[in-house]
Input
Amino acid sequence: MLRDAGTGTLFGEALDLAGASGPASAPALPLVPARPAARIPAHQLGHRQRLRERAAVSLTALPDYELLELLLTRSLPRGDVKPLAKALLARFRDLNGVMGATLEELTAVKGVGPGAALDLKLVQETAIRLGRGQAARRTVISSWSALLAYARAAMAGASREQFRVLFLDKKNQLIADEVMNEGTVDHAPVYPREVMRRALELSASAVILAHNHPSGDPTPSSADVAMTRQVAEAGKTLGIAIHDHIVVGREGVASLKALGLF
Output
């Protein structure tokens, strides 16, 4: 057993014995030269620089794959990301689809790590909040184009169906925008009493319903129409108006009100 370092000698004796019986010194290991840091090939550096210069002149002039490529260079500073940008667009159809994909779906694409996937979702969330701000600063009914743009940014690229409700005050200004439910690729359950309960909690005078069709086709289904009529009927007894129900898809936006479906 070891004695206290300040008073005992066994520990020192053990070291002496080890030194006496062991080799005088361990053989030196050969030094392994440090691996040089990976460098970006000159032609890739030139391509990235030219892409940034074109973006500085006009971002709107860039095709979708180059805009996405430019985003990916921030997350992936080494390597050629053009093939990855094109692979993402091929997998998710368009930019809305890429931004609307989940973190799990994005990282399933070879070359997209957790960091790059999160960066893409940050871009989507920023766009959603900008659109929400545009809709909230003005009377929603008089800024319909801003509302539709916001709805498309928030839902058009989502891979699963989600049901949102925009709650409005007496001046038709936005109180809150909430996802009431999320579902599968073609169905999100909706409970009219839950919509009305939340409207009462927020003292809302009216609501706008919105959901997406991941298939891309915004044409309302018979189930969409039936559900809208149920919510409208529930709202009548409480004095809460249903201004519209909009269906969002990559191919456009459909208004059940404009179509005369409720």
